Amino acid sequence: MSIKVTWFGHSAFALEVGGRSVVIDPFLSGNPLAPVTHDQLSAEIILLSHGHGDHLGDTVALAQRTGATVVSNVEIVSWLRGKGVDNAAGQNLGGAADYEFVTVKLTPALHSSSLPDGTYGGLASGFIITERATGLRLYFAGDTALFSDMQLIGDEGIDVAFLPIGDYFTMGTEDALKAIRYIRPRYVVPMHYNTFPPIVQDVSGWANRVANETGALPIILDPGGSYWINADNEV
Ligand code: NI
Ligand code: MN
After folding, report:
1. Residue 235 has pLDDT above 50, yes or no
2. How far apart are CA 148 and CA 175, in angstroms?
3. N or C, fewer C-beta in 10 Å, the chain?
4. Cβ contacts of residue 34 below 8 Å, gap of 6+?
């Protein structure tokens, strides 16, 4: 069993989990790095970390076309229902729920959140995503500053951590290295960089530091690129 991770630039990902599809923060329209449009994606579950436009993205159109379950917080789910997205689950921080093939737990993120029309978006979140069949566990940090309680997330045994490195709106490369030491993942996938001028980063320089200074293996994806995570492969 394995999880295929595909990056669409920014914090937009597709996960293929035992043949089932999860899409995270589907910002494709208006994303200069996006190699696909939302009407090319399949989705059974859409995870939405917070209400900002560069994460909400094409959530409404993708959810309406696919019928996917949108997992977010109660405030955002209430807003989505008003946009005609009925299949949505409004969890809140610290809460986990099973969705057939994955368990999704909302984690704190140190960030703001509002919807594009100014509606309050509740608290920004990240996600711990566990493949129920294998126990493979991913931590998608969302938009966040560094916080030391990432150690508690690390205590849950994280195989892959998805961390923002762009700086300016989220933590940058130095703090992401500290985050890796807290989380102790086998693999780390950088995100939320190079989309716009304020968040341009030297990702290969950062990846060298990850490899030399932490116990994690960096996975650098090109937009549209994929990587397979196996439950039993060793780093
Ligand atoms: Ni944001
Ligand atoms: Mn963002």
Report:
1. no
2. 11
3. C
4. 8, 9, 10, 12, 27, 28, 223
User: So where are the chain's domains?
Assistant: 2-230
* Ion ligand 1 residue ranges (Cβ < 5 Å): 52, 143
* Cα 114 to averaged position of ligand 1 atoms, centre (Å): 9
Report, in this order, helix, strand and coil percent for the chain, each rounded to 5.
25, 30, 45
The answer to whether 113 and 52 have CB atoms below 8 angstroms apart is: yes
Which pLDDT value is given to residue 211?
98
* pLDDT category of residue 1 using cuts at 50, 70 and 90: low
Q: How far is CA 120 from the centre of its chain?
A: 21
**Rounded to 5 degrees, what are φ and ψ at 120?**
-60, 130
| DSSP β-ladder status, 13-17 and 2-7 | antiparallel
Cα of 56 from ligand 1 centre, angstroms: 9
The rounded Å distance from CA 15 to ligand 2 centre is 19
Strand pairing category for 137-140 and 125-131: antiparallel
Spelled out in words, what is the top-level CATH class assigned to the domain 2-230?
alpha beta
Nearest to 96 by CA among 41, 153, 142, 146: 153
Q: What is the pLDDT of residues 172-196, one digit of tens each?
A: 999 999 999 999 999 999 999 999 9
C-alpha to C-alpha distance for 17 and 210, rounded to whole angstroms? 26
For residue 10, the ligand closest to its alpha carbon is 2
